[in-house]
Amino acid sequence: MTAARSGTRRAVRRTGLAAALAVLTLAAGVGSAPASGVTGGTPATGYAFAAHIQVGELVRGCSGALIDPEWVATSAACFAGTGGAPAEPTTVTVGRADLQTTGGQQRRVVDVVPHPDRQLALAKLSAPVIDVAPVPIAAVAPTAGETLQVLGYGRTATTWVPRRLHRGDLTVQAVGGATIDIAPAVGTSVGICKGDAGGPALRPRGAGFELVGVHTTSGQAGCLDAPADATATATETRLDDIAAWVRQTVRGGTFVRLPTSAAVLDTRGSIGGAPGVKAAGTTTSFPVTGVGGVPATGVTAVLVDVTAVTTTAGMYLTVFPEGTTRPAALSTLNVTADQILSNSAVVAVPASGRLSVYNNGGGVHIIVDVQGYYTRAGTSGGGYVPVTPTRLVDTRSGLGGGGTTAIPSGGSRTFPFTGGVIPSGASAAFVDLIATGATAQGWIGTFATGGTSRSVMDYVPGTTSHGVAVRLGTDGRATFTNNSGSPIHLVMTATGYFTGAPANGAGLRTLAARRLVDTRSNPAPMPANSTVDVATGLPPGATAVVNFVVVDNTAGGYLHAWPVGGTEPGTSLSNYPPTADLARGGMAKVPVGTDGKIRVRNVSTGTTNLVVDLQAWYAGS
Question: What is the distance between the alpha carbons of residues 149 and 220, in angstroms, rounded to a whole number?
């Protein structure tokens, strides 16, 4: 653009031209050179966090900035509507300065969260970007006279669709309560055009940058096809004073452990509204919000305990958000004939507030209990903090108190959880719960002082294990009940905890559940004591919520799981029986290491196949 002239700024409008991929671009002044660059600026490199946003086939294009592995900040003008899934299929490209090349990463936009009173929208990506560092948001407002670096993929003085990122320097003229006015320095002609809407305004910080604002409006002087009286001034949406809102939005959901797990589906009766045995190949839908203490609105995901009862054949259940495509082949719970068995799962909650469960074979009754829910409200619950896997309870050795005797049929025992890796004040512990030594089927209930027992695990003879959330009382203790005709021993390993305040710890990030690895596609199963590295697609330092499924094992055993580059723990996850009738699964939370990978060891004298499904994740600190 040419140097600033007096006149009224014009709002940046969406272009409806099929040839334009862009809503604002850094523009070269008319008649200036080079044609491919910004007058007073250059084609930009070294800004991998810069994002190009393509709405629909050729509906409109915008610019933005990656501010989190799975979120992009841009102008609210880039999206129609008031939020939620975009009306048009939308693709974000990051790490690709030249759109005609094949570098960088592309993701779909699955959710849009507009700020309530600013021209800002946060676009959630279908999967995190792990090889591009996000740009941090500035904590301090700019001052008049400060120079900012501005970026965009939009129109230039000579090109409608330049298909590459450009950069220029503009000077802050004034800072308002919600906006920043910028203009070219005297004697320069850098500006912002259609297609640049939502592009970043940056302040150098150390060896990198911080995001001061996103492009909102521009006079568009010097842009191709701009009117003769266009001005070169522009307005940015200010971000420093709403950084807390941005952090809360992208952080994910805080966890609220219900006092007593809520029964939301039980096909043996009328709970969930779907009574009767479920036949092979059927899908049952049921509400999870507005029931049993789960709020009717504001719930992003739930932690559920899923139980299969009286199966007539080996089969699996898959729980998924109602109205979405069921993840083919993914399983939540694997059982054999005549078992009553459960597993935990984290499942995203759609706008309907309902989940669906698919039964792939055999007649079965299905029970689903909600242990707790996740909310982005920021006023309740707690964030998640992973810990080094630490055994807290083992009734075989007396660890945790209560002696070395098994818990008898109908008996209960109370254990302390805080004071070590779980601090005082934690609202809930996340543990790998093992019932071992059972000679009959049964279920384990848990409650904090003053609560009521509700099942968190249905077990079968032998050994059963999976992750559960244990609600803690103010005394840091929880009670467990053995509801069975058989005495059992309990073993519990803490892998993390939920804080007592919503501002602390990591929030849950939801995604479409997907399979990460299936060793059945290998030439041979995993040998005894061997390892496999699992690429999660998550950034190092994150925590993956996964379901480990052991298939076709030739001996009993268990798994070790840890971040690649970290230390192997001495405690087990997902204990499995001596022989595999079909498969045995167990949900766990595992920190992610180098290159976004976790390492899993088959601790057994026999071979096995391993299936790993990703359900959700928590960002690192």
Answer: 17
**Whole-number Cα distances in Å, 442 to 252, 260, 309, 581:** 35, 19, 11, 19
Task: Give the whole-angstrom CA distance, residue 397 versus residue 403.
Answer: 7
What's the token pair of residue 143? 């001052």
Rounded to whole angstroms, how far apart are CA atoms 264 and 302? 11
Q: Identify the residue whose tokens are 């006149």.
A: 7
Other C-beta atoms closer than 10 Å to the C-beta of 568 total: 12
The whole-number pLDDT of residue 186 equals 78
Rounded-to-integer distance, Cα 218 and Cα 302, Å: 44
Residue 538: which residues within 8 A CB-CB, separation 6 or more?
Answer: 69, 128, 130, 544, 592, 596, 614, 617
Instruction: Evaluate whether 608 touches 553 at the Cβ level (below 8 Å).
Output: yes
For residue 487, the surrounding DSSP H or E stretch is none
The Cα–Cα gap between 210 and 216 comes to 18
pTM value is 0.90
- The single residue listed with the structure tokens 């150098």 is 204
Could you tell me if residue 162 is left (phi over 0), alpha (psi between -120 and 50 degrees) or otherwise beta? alpha
DSSP SS3 for 457: strand
pLDDT of residue 6: 29
Per-residue pLDDT, 156: 87
Burial of 85 (0-12, 13-18, 19+ CB in 10 A): middle
How far is C-alpha 309 from the chain's CA centre? 31
CB 410 within 8 A of CB 417: no
Q: How far is CA 172 from the centre of its chain?
A: 36
Using alpha carbons only, how large is the chain's radius of gyration in Å?
A: 27
Alpha helices for 442-539 (secondary structure H)? none
Q: Is 6 helix (H, G, I), strand (E, B) or coil?
A: coil
Distance CA 347, CA 332 (A): 10
Find the distance separating the first CA and the last CA of the chain, reported in whole Å. 41
pLDDT along the chain (621 residues), means of 10: 29 30 36 28 80 90 96 94 88 95 94 95 96 96 96 88 90 96 84 92 95 94 85 93 95 96 96 94 97 96 96 92 92 94 97 96 95 92 97 97 94 96 97 97 92 91 96 96 95 98 95 95 95 97 97 95 97 89 91 97 97 96 70
Beginning with the edge strand found earlier in the chain, give each strand of the sheet holding 299-309 in spatial order. 254-266, 365-375, 299-309, 341-348
Distance CA 363, CA 280 (A): 6
Residues whose CB is less than 8 angstroms from the CB of residue 571 and which lie 6 or more positions away in sequence, other chains included: 389, 390, 391, 432, 493, 560
Which residue shows structure tokens 């941090």? 136
CA distance 453 to 441: 18
Tokens at 137, concatenated:
């948001």
Alpha helices (H) in 113-251, listed in sequence order: 243-251
Its sign, for the CA torsion 266, 269, 274, 277, is positive
Distance CA 54, CA 77 (A): 13
Question: What is the Cα–Cα distance from 364 to 142, expressed in whole angstroms?
Answer: 63
Kindly report the backbone phi and psi dihedral angles of residue 548, in degrees, each rounded to the nearest multiple of 5, phi listed first: -90, 125
Within 13 Å and on the Cβ side, how many CA atoms surround 377? 16
Which letter does DSSP use for residue 245 in this model? H
